[in-house]
Design the sequence.
């Protein structure tokens, strides 16, 4: 088919306003078949609105989007049988059992009861929910509900899958389980658009990452490309006395090609490698007779991406928007 | 469309017994109301023209219970909205109207169940039909139509509020007075002027009057065809409103 050569997801200049709020202000996105596109951004950036437009739940005010070769507005009805959606609220019926939930979704896709049930059993098995399949979903843990929600999105084996913050609020173990499930799907050729607030998640799963803010895509690229824009890992030393910062800088400066920053008790060194950095720093500091309360290596975070791309952290952005809104209201 | 509607109606019915609050509302609560009215108020209420208060009460009580039958629709829709299930249904290749049609269809089944429970309770405490089988069945059919009309009112309520709790509050405040300021529990003649006029034009009164004449004999007047017209008007008004609300709920 034609769309196997074209992009599985493509959006150009999507615009969507709610009243005076412009949730999407010209969003461009692209994902090749069989890849994962991570959409990264803070709350309110436009991630969920983008997903809702691409899954036909919202009609855009402007722009164009195609998913699996179909126009999201003109071919909306046809498109719905080729996509799967798992949202951030784990949209399963709590009063139905796992198997009833999946069977219902299968029948709403137009399958006969027996076919829907067989598929439900298959999916429960795949997501390690076979034992829990006969219990109402309200007895499930958060991780189990997300797995059931993901299974519901996969009932029709859709070629394109949308996951809106699939791991928000999950414990680390459940998060890793879900990541493995997603990786398996992509291995089978599914195209995935994944929104997330966690750089770590995008880093692990996404082939390409689009960073959104205020309804715009402000950066796009592979995880490595984005990280190089942010800078590498940071070694952070908290000194016992800030008076020792000069001694600390001279002890540590040959560890990095970048200049060492000091701010009060905090000394920051850019390092290329994580391994050994803490030991090395501790050795140097003790040789120089500098006392440290804490030494840590920090990976770049979403905050760092924002800091480097926009010049301020996402929290500041929100505060700025609120201030702006107050001005408008006044 | 039809199979989607049936699937979603089945879903609403399967989940009902697993929700203890709702199950009580459809089973124990009507029995309790019948017993309270019959034996606490019954002795103090004069019902000229009817054998005794229990005969007078049962049709009124059934109409009231059926008017509230759509509560499951209001609560269910409000819950689906807040929990994201509506988004899931919308993202499926499912007929859009089937979410509402499935809910309201399920109400018809639960209404039939409450009707049976109330009639059995009625028989135990002495209620008797004074009617032939077609008249009894006509009453049942009329009640189901009436319940269906009220389900659409509840569908609009369910999609107009922010949470199931709010749907509960709004539903009670709106529907409770409508069922009480009527001929359901006391003869309208006993009410003070003002209230009495309200009770006279209240569709619940029309409905109760029609049911009493079908099941207990007596003067039919216009009440039967007027009740049918009322139900049609309510459906014509609230079904399109509910569908509109459903469309708008996604902000599309």
Sequence:
């Amino acid at each position: 088919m034609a769309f196997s050569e074209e992009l599985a997801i493509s959006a150009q200049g999507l615009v969507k306003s709610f009243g005076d709020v412009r949730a999407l202000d010209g969003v461009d996105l692209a994902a090749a078949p069989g890849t994962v596109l991570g959409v990264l951004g803070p709350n309110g950036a436009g991630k969920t609105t983008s997903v809702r437009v691409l899954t036909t739940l919202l009609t855009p005010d402007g722009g164009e989007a195609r998913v699996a070769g179909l126009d999201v507005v003109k071919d909306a009805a046809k498109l719905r049988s080729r996509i799967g959606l798992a949202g951030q609220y784990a949209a399963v019926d709590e009063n139905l059992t796992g198997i009833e939930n999946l069977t219902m979704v299968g029948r709403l896709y137009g399958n006969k009861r027996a076919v829907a049930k067989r598929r439900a059993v298959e999916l429960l098995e795949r997501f390690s929910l076979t034992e829990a399949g006969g219990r109402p979903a309200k007895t499930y843990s958060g991780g189990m509900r997300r797995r059931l929600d993901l299974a519901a999105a996969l009932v029709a084996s859709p070629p394109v899958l949308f996951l809106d913050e699939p791991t928000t609020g999950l414990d680390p173990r459940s998060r890793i389980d879900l990541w493995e499930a997603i990786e398996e799907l992509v291995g089978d050729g599914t195209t995935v658009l994944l929104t997330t607030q966690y750089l770590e998640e995008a880093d692990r799963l996404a082939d390409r990452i689009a960073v959104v803010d205020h309804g715009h895509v402000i950066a796009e690229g592979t995880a490595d490309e984005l990280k190089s824009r942010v800078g590498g890992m940071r070694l952070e030393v908290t000194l016992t006395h800030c008076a020792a910062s000069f001694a600390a800088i001279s002890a540590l400066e040959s560890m990095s090609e970048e200049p060492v920053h000091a701010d009060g008790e905090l000394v920051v060194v850019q390092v290329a490698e994580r391994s050994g950095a803490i030991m090395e720093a501790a050795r140097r500091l003790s040789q120089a007779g500098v006392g440290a309360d804490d030494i840590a290596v920090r990976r770049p975070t979403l905050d760092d991406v924002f800091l480097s791309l926009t010049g301020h952290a996402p929290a500041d952005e929100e505060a700025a928007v609120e201030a702006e809104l107050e001005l408008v209201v006044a | 469309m039809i199979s989607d509607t049936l699937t979603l109606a089945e879903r609403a019915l399967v989940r009902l017994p697993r929700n203890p609050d709702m199950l009580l509302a459809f089973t124990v609560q009507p029995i309790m109301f019948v017993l309270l009215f019959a034996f606490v108020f019954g002795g103090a209420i004069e019902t000229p023209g009817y054998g005794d208060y229990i005969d007078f009460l049962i049709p009124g009580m059934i109409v009231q219970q059926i008017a509230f039958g759509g509560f499951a629709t209001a609560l269910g829709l409000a819950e689906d909205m807040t929990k994201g299930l509506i988004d899931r249904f919308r993202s499926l290749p499912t007929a859009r109207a089937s979410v509402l049609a499935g809910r309201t269809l399920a109400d018809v089944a639960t209404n039939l169940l409450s009707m049976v429970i109330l009639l059995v309770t009625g028989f135990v405490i002495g209620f008797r039909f004074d009617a032939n089988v077609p008249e009894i069945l006509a009453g049942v059919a009329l009640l189901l139509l009436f319940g269906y009309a009220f389900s659409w009112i509840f569908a609009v309520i369910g999609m107009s509020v922010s949470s199931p709790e709010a749907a509960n509050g709004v539903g009670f405040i709106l529907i409770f007075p409508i069922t009480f300021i009527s001929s359901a529990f006391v003869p309208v003649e006993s009410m003070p002027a003002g209230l009495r006029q309200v009770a006279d034009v209240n569709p619940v009164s029309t409905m109760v009057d029609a049911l009493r004449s079908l099941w207990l004999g007596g003067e039919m007047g216009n009440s039967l065809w007027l009740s049918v017209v009322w139900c049609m008007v309510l459906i014509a008004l609230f079904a399109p409103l509910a569908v509109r609300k459903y469309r708008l709920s996604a902000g599309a």
